[in-house]
Amino acid sequence: MITDEIMITMAATLSTTLVIMLLAIRNTVHKKRLRRSLDWLETAKHSKYDTAHFQALKNDIDPTYIYSGNSSTSTFKLSLKISFGIAVLLGFSWWTFQLFTKGVLIWAAVSGLFAVIGLILPFLIWREVKQREEIKSRAGRTLKQIEKNLKQSHSEISEQSRKPAASTVSIIESAPVTDTTIRVEQKIPIPEDSVLRRHVLTQLRTEVEESLFPRPADCVLLRHYEQLGESEVKNRLLNPEALQHFKFIDGIEIPDAAASTSIIDVKEKSSPIELAIVGTPSKSDSKHEVPEDSVLRRDWLTQLRSEIEASLFPRPTDCVLLRHYEQLVESELENRLVNPEDLSLFKFIEGRESALDSSAPSKPKRIDTLINKPASKAKNEPEQITIPEDSVLQRHFISQLRSEIETEVYPRPTEATLQRHYDQLIEAELASHLKWNTNWIR
To answer: Is Transmembrane set as a keyword in this record (predicted)?
Structure first.
């Protein structure tokens, strides 16, 4: 008899546990879907959705997850769940009393535990249903707010479209257009070159994504996010005022879309063609004086390349954009080497004035401290610097000379190879100053 009671208790507890687990899993899945639907609606509320995108989003959401269920079906389901909890409470309470009277205390305790669970179960079911209804009501309010905003935006767009239509009709009736062959109107300020156009579109898409909410991880939200980004890019391309900050791309000025330019204006603004002058080019018209030493030439070109990259847009990470970026830097480097006006910042290389400025003769700076200048000296006689014979004064003299040389050249680099070349350059310049400007090294 005791064995039968134990088997009945085990069967009742296992079946009750299984039913409770199934209810908990179903409730968790249902609640997760509700929260995901609410997140979609909140995202759509703070975004610029059109009617097509909103309708696609609305079709993806189950209506049972939006509207609160006050129907008879939901009431019947709720009553079934509460009845199950009450049945568990009453059944296990009675069975606990029977086991206790027969002396099966261990299984009576197990049955009593399930009776307590049956007591708590109706309250838990009631709380979960209330939370679910609150989420549904919140989702329904959000959906109504989005529909209201869409209707207001459509009404505003229709009112705005009526006003320019009336003005266009009045203009056509008053003065017909007769100079269509003379005027050339520019539409969208997008470069014709494929590389520049790709850069403009990439930068525009990046700014559009920065102005939107963060990129979602869910696949459905990601699809709507990409559709929203594409529509925003098209809207900005159709609106010329949205591209005013793209007037300078890679040093090339893009003409303004707001101002239409006629053929006559373009002809007046165009610069006259300069005739080529045949003659022997001088040293100042040729390419820049690049150091003959391989180490100095490499440092010189590295510094020039870094200046060019600093003046351009940031270095891209895409492989195609990176290749075009390298080509642009190489072409700019060749242009600066050929054109003398582009290297005005590089007039002082290796501590002395470059040969770019032919009007000003080069005058190396000299140290005025610890120098005994003669009272009178001929103009053509070169000035010499006397180095002290004392070892301490010599060390201070050379340290000060080195510091003055370092102030004249470019700043000390941080890379190890460039630092080594920089030290070699300073040593060579120091030896040059000591050789030609002093009477110590002969």
So the answer is: yes
